[in-house]
């Protein structure tokens, strides 16, 4: 379960300190998919980064499976990112010097959770099993994002964070990829938090929120 | 030309967006210009200062008439020779003076010359009656004395004091005038008549032959000489002139090497800049600008940058040269007694050279990145994925064919350079450059090959090592030019170090073997001294080393090659057992000492052998100082480092038989251990005050110190070249680090800690550095072998065995790797201090 309590985050914009997230509270049960929508600059990505422990809160707490990630030491933060989280980026961010297979296996291997059968199934489910030995740059955008999804799930994380996962894809591909992402997370009982502009994608989630003026509003 | 302004505007406005890469190009051009300017300035100044300090007022003085032992040259002798039609003769007289100024004493040489004879001679040769064009241009010729203003500054004597100078014995000197004409060295120049007036008729020390006579003229002059006079070739000036050649060659070679390395930096920086501009280039290509137009604008941009950086870098080089001039000065003063002065070098010419060299270098450096960009511009769609390889095994590697062509060409050029001695130093430099570039090519080909071979093993070690190895492959591709510069620096370092070390060891061993006597005496009364020693110190064994000047007449092995009047040093060399042990031969015939003792042949030095292509058992005809010509068989070829002249050794018995009047100056003494050296020194000081005594240890120490000073500048330039290569690598790593941020951000997002990434980066770059070093080792060894057996032989006519000092090679490799790691620390510390969010934001953008 993810519990966010009294979360505040400000950003320095020149001489002005600008609030991004204001007294934010949120509870997401385990295995549930959640979408967060909002205008550009509303703080969606910031929230996602805070959940990934890539950034620090100004005040408030974020608990993931009863552990306050704000209190983590450096090595605990690394372990948390490594074991508990899978991230899907808008621009795919695949490792361009490794093959598709090596990219997908990478998190599983660094977590000692490498399971070739599972990864093969995952790739088959995503329709990228024929691209295993290719380099990521030779794939289309949709294929690359599917590789990114496979990579985010290869080590069976408890939480998948997706930041505009279909922002770089056309409508048809976007629809296909987002459905794959939601279905896989549902089948694997993985908590999914998706930040998106698209109401079509948001509708696929079990919980949906709007981020306005730094506060979350349930849809 | 309508395209020019918009494209140029695009190029110049792109600076603010790619500031770092632009600054790298500028910094590289600045360093190249500064290095080139400093080396050129030092080299030219050293040459000019040397010429100024040693060049006599007259050009082409190759012979001098000197008195035989116990005789003098009279004014009548001089007048008679001139009356016989030898108008090119100029009387010279030299004297050491101690002058007093403001209670300070200065030791100064005065050179008295028959200035009227010089003036007539030069007027005759220029067919001019205008006194100002005679090359001397002195007014009041017979009365005033002259001094160069630089020398005056050096002595720290005020101009106002020039009229009041006197010797320490109270003799007032004539009015001194400053004159900065060519040939004014570190001495006072006076008309010989004026000098005679002041010092009361001193001797004429020599009569200079101020023309380059042919052999008939030499013979005619010899016939006209009275018995107490002899004609000798002048070799002293040439000795030093040729010695300075090694200095200039060293400096120039290292300067050129540094410039080439700098051009690699420029190439690297240009490639990085071009890759960032690629997207804009594609857009303007879509808008109808051709790639040739883009190239033209880029070249104009480079000319602009080179003009600014050439001038600024050139001025920086002048400052740099001024900073290092005390060290260079010390070397030059110690070696050649020359004081370095920048006054004679044209700064405008120097800056123009820097601008031109920078521009040409930058154009060459532009070829590689632009041909790459041009290839990519062929496809002007903004999606460049078509050009991506499908798998890692298809990663771009250097084609084998150009490498094979390069290797073959370098081998051919080496063959030509070795087999055709007339090919000259340019061919040697071209061969060396080709060998170095072949090494670069091999490294570029080998690096991805080796990494691909290691990749499966790295995969077995774990995902991070697998990623690190695959990433190294990517880094090796984007940093290949920087690693080429690194490779050149390491190979050159190994090559130069091995060469200098081999030379040092060979010289050290040679000096210690050759100088086997306990004490050496330098005296003009050698015969008397030897008699005194025999009488008073019977336990001392003494040998006089006799010397004379001769000529190589003909080498019978090469009858087509006539060597008439080629000066030859002829020395006596004893035949005793200890002297046999002291001789270090390169080659000998059978029973060399037996034949030598019996007078059946001579020993020659490597300089003679290499310059005349004479081998053991060949026969040569040489002319002795007394005019006799004899044919000798060559029995052995010995090492004679540092001597620029051909030399032949004869047994003393034969020497004395043929030559009655020789200058015996050096006596070697073998002393019984029980005889205190202090006692001998004291006795010699009392009885032969003009004698200089030096022990074997001191002489060896002095020789090796001179050696070290000669190569101190080489070592310093070697280090500078290395630092420039390190800068090249640093720029590359710095920019690659920026390009690596998304990858590292991703790794951090996946939970891999900074320390681990830090370690991975260190291993990646040191691994690539190690690979470059490993390939540089054989090429460095090859380079030193070429330097010893090709460049040295052609430039100085000597060679020595190449000694492979593994410790030295390992030390260079390790220090190179340490430099790589030190360079890495800065971007990695920057990276470690960066919050992961910054990289993630970078990743998102």
Q: What is the strand content of chain B?
A: 5-15%
Beta-strand fraction estimate of chain A:
25-35%
- State the separation between the terminal residues of chain A, measured CA to CA: 20 Å
Q: How would a textbook summarize the main sheet of chain B? A: 7 strands, mixed
Biggest contact:
A-B, 37 and 32 residues
Shape of chain A: globular
Return residue spans of chain B where pLDDT drops below 50 for at least 5 consecutive residues.
125-138, 236-243, 381-392, 658-662
As a whole number of angstroms, the C-alpha radius of gyration of chain B is 33 Å
Assembly type of the shown chains? heterodimer
- Total strand count of chain A, please? 10
The largest sheet of chain A, given as strand count, sense and whether it forms a barrel, is: 6 strands, mixed
Order of helices and strands of chain A: EEEHEEHEHHHEHEHEE
Strand order of the largest sheet of chain A: 6-7-8-3-9-10
Overall, the morphology of chain B is globular
Quick one: how many beta strands of chain B? 19
* Percent of residues in helices of chain A: 25-40%
